[in-house]
Amino acid sequence: MAEADLNSANLGRGGLPLPIWLRWLVAVVTVVSLFLAMDAMRLFASRPLLEGLIQLENHYYYALLGLLLPLVYLLFPPAKGVKHYYFDIPLALAALGASVFLFINTETMLDYGWEFMPPTHAVWVSAVVWVLTLEAVRRCGGWTLFVLVLFFSVYPMVADHMPGPISGLQASPAQTAAYHVISIESILGLPFRAFATLVIGFVIFGIALQQTGGGRFFINLAFALLGRVRGGSAKVAIMSSGLMGSMSGSVITNVLSTGQMTIPAMKRSGFKPHDAGGIEACASTGGVLLPPIMGSTAFVMATFLNVPYTQVALAAAIPALLYFFGLFVQIDAYAARNNLSGAAEEELPSLRQTLLDGWFYVGAFVVLIVLLVYLQREAMAPFIATGVLLVLNQFSGKHRWNFEQLIDFLVASGRLLVELLAILAGVGLIVGALSMTGLSGTLVNDLLYLAGDAVWLLLLMGALTSFVLGIGMTVTAAYIFLAIVLAPALIQGGLNAMSVHLFILYWGMLSFITPPVALGAFAAASIAGASQIRTGFAAMSIGSVIYLIPFFFVLDPALVLDASPGEVVLALLQAATGVWLIAGAIQAYLPGVGVIGRGMAGFTGRLATAFGGVAIALPGLEAVGLALGDGPLLVIGLSLAGLGILLCLSARVAKVAHHDRKAS
Questions:
Q1: At what angle do helices 403-437 and 200-211 cross, to 10 degrees?
Q2: What is the pLDDT of residues 199-210, one digit of tens each?
């Protein structure tokens, strides 16, 4: 959540400030939820302080559900324009009461297997929680996600009546309700457990970092480092939006916050409005793919893969850096081709002063990374780093909090936690339905049957499906669905598990910069004062390498660090060379070569250069059943790129000669 959202989080219905009673309620619930989470992570002692009360993991999960689910109905209105709470307070009380019942009966439910043989009163309570969760999804996730969750959650009751490929084991309404709420495969499934054990801490760290002024610090740091180079304002946007996006985990939020500063700066330095918006949209999209935080999806991924979150973050590092490298090459080429210089020295902040003013942000990040990577305390790391940041912040004259700002922070944190809980609990209903009916295994087998031995076909199906689902659903929801249905098929096809899950995540993100939807680009267009469609196509062009990078790393596990150091370095060099050639060909400018691509010969040269870059970056294609090894591909790529550059140079020489003849 970005700084702009920290203000809106304190707004209630009709754009008015939150009522005092609700503001205090959210703050208190946030404090209690954080205490529960930290105690469950054993942050205070070697054994939980609430061990007598929270004896089982399910106790903790139902406690979180009871604290946060009721707030959905108070913070998110049932429809636009509704200002009263007449229906929402009863819904909140019903959610609280049902959660208390589940909390009290947790041991009994486990001992007697209520998820399969529930007593009548447990069925009614489960039905209430089921319906309330669906309403929470509608309010927080929108109608598209609601309809999808509703369809899948009732699917077990009609599974035996469905056509062959999607038929499954049938369950009664009572069995379905109980399984959804009492088992650990549905509402309390993997998405919810990832939220309860990992996501909460990183959400709080991200909000604390931004509300203490971290957003402004990163932008100033980027300007101090890159503002004076050619195309500096756009490179600042890439660096600052990338760092901010990693914290917020939201493309739209990132665009609307950092874009307010970066887009006008790009326009002042000579970038066209639609290009400025496209650059910001690409940078904000890439931020969600950039370690160390990466938004909530990466934590769910770690839970799915049953690996430490640190392993996911490290695996995601090279693909993210390749994407940002491609953006930098394109921006540098754009600036060189259009003779755009950097900002004047007197317009830029001092690097020394910026670091002096914001040294504690760097300190908090160092603490986080040491705890994550060196000490392997991923559950505790964000809580400790947040504590360090807040303590150090009080020594800052500029950003020191007063009591009112502390409450603002708690309210903003609570609102985001409530929203995430609702969406992840709802997505859990999809997981539960697939588990209950056995449909997930059926769909995997059907996909393998359709694709035959053609893993490349499965990859193309996966890319298209991820993109389409990313349009109508949150990235996390789309990822979870595909991680259950599609990822096992790709893995059984012989591809690396980590690469497959990152492949799904990347293609789910592409809808933010790809028309006709391109929500990130459209948000940037509103700030830039540009056409939405033009901004969308500009984002698609500038971020074009992101369409190819997932294929590079899904076919070469070395790019997700699943290889020897030598193999990783070689794969990185090949991929970086390929990205450099592709980006230069798209922008018609290669550093060291200059402007390329004039006339038909130049266009043909650019095309050959781009295809050469793809061939250089791709590893051997044996994994997808094609008899083309790494060596032959590299030779083909170098030959194509060399031929393309020669064609471009010859076209440029011919144009200069033609110009000289005309002049003489």
A1: 150
A2: 898 889 888 888
